Amino acid sequence: MSSRCALVSKVIPFSCVDGPGSRLALFLQGCNLRCKNCHNPWTMGRCNDCGECAVHCPHEALSYQAGRVYWHEGECQQCDTCLHLCPQQATPMAKTMSVEEVISQIAAAAPFIEGVTVSGGEATTQLPFIEALFRQLKQTPALQHLTCLIDSNGELNISGWERVRPVCDGVMVDLKAWGGELHRELTGRDNGRIKESIRWLAEHRMLSELRLLLIPQHSDYLSAIEPLSAFIAGLGDIPVRLNAFHAHGVYGEAAQWRSAGPDDINALAGALEARGITRLIHPALYL
């Protein structure tokens, strides 16, 4: 087996919101976007052991020894003080896990799940680990029935997608804005590579879901409905998930943005349906 390791922020053994059916969701640490609306902003960076969090932990669940921050899980009350303080947008609670350790957790959950989804942060910033993990799953008879999905922002280049293609069953990709300038304003980068990824994944039957996050007053889907609809139509029969922005868990200026409601989603859905985009998935709930 591989000894490849990854920095993991969280493992959810049973999730029904990270792809079809019940799935084990593996959240990897680190992201190459800086989305203002991120609901998990502490997954963006990596701890540099500055020690700022350890000094202020109210439960003494963090210590600073020999230039390193150590997390004492038994003392942690999950108060999130460290997450709010971290200048790196990281978490001291991230763990280094090997493929073998993750496989062990997957095996324990296997009778109750339909697959594994690797998310983030941005999962593909640790692509060699994903490749090794998925390959091991495909080679393990008791786990071969599990589908292997990636939840991605689409920033990976085509050579990266080609690399993981033999062992990946599908990719769910977010298109956070249509216009490149607005996308840069919201995320720190334009979306040229993301659109390229979406097209390539659809062409190679790897795009399992396209996701649009509607942020009232900050999304351009309706104003760009014609090119957006043409783009989606060109992908083939791909489900489009309409996600409603909510401010819960968001830091910074986006915490003051208005949440999207049914009227916002229905307006976008109606505009897409009028242009032949009918395979839409509406939010299960609104916060």
From TrEMBL:
Domain Radical SAM core stretches: 17-284
Residues covered by the 4Fe-4S ferredoxin-type domain: 38-65, 67-96
Keywords recorded for this protein, A-Z: 4Fe-4S, Iron, Iron-sulfur, Metal-binding, Oxidoreductase, S-adenosyl-L-methionine
Record carries keyword Metal-binding: yes
Pfam families assigned: Fer4 (PF00037), Radical_SAM (PF04055)
Family of this protein: Belongs to the organic radical-activating enzymes family.
PANTHER family linked: GLYCYL-RADICAL ENZYME ACTIVATING ENZYME YJJW-RELATED, PYRUVATE FORMATE-LYASE-ACTIVATING ENZYME
Name of the featured protein: YjjW family glycine radical enzyme activase
